[in-house]
Amino acid sequence: MSLLYANPKVKRRHARPELTEEQKKEIKEAFELFDSDKDNALDYHELKVAMRALGFEVKKAEVLKILREYDKDGQGVIEFEDFQKVMTERILDRDPLEEIRKAFKLFDDDGTGKISLRNMRRVAKEIGENLDDEELQAMIDEFDLDQDGEINEQEFISIMTDTNE
User: Fold this and answer.
1) Within 10 Å of residue 72's Cβ, how many Cβ atoms?
2) Cα→Cα distances 50→20, 32, 156, Å
């Protein structure tokens, strides 16, 4: 057998990653939520807001390019199937480490490079978690490798990438 032809009996080990069911659901929910006129298509403004809701800050030129590429009949809209294709590709292309760094910055709103008890208190309040300072400090202490009383970016990355659950 020639080396130029793949053996059809051997399965590929590295298939392209796929979205989780949760991610697919988020795409559908964003489409439905921002299809404000319920015409099963997103216009420029609806598309921009839906993409932002899924975590993508897009500029006007980028949104217009997507619409030009997927607008089948010149109406200036994108239908769900195409929106799903675009968002699936973008989600799969995300750099997980960059996403973790963005999340760190959401905690570190004062820009100190560390997550303090004050930062944790604010985030807990924002997400509606009723935790006292002792519980929040215990969370910090558990992952505070350099024992300075705060979580730095590297410690945060370690927490978020820990696969020993």
Assistant:
1) 10
2) 19, 9, 29
Cα(162)–Cα(140) distance, integer angstroms: 15
Phi and psi at 155, nearest 5°, equal -65, -40
Note if the pTM is more than 0.70. no
125: its two tokens: 């309040």
CB 73 within 8 A of CB 65: no
158 and 143 Cβ atoms separated by less than 8 Å: yes
Placement of tokens 């795409």 in the chain: 27
> Of the candidates 41, 43, 36, which has an alpha carbon nearest to the alpha carbon of residue 84?
41
Contact 42, 35 (CB under 8 A): yes
Confidence band of 163 (pLDDT split at 50, 70, 90): low
- Contact criterion met (CB below 8 Å) for 155 and 144: yes
Q: Are 146 and 136 in contact (CB under 8 A)?
A: no
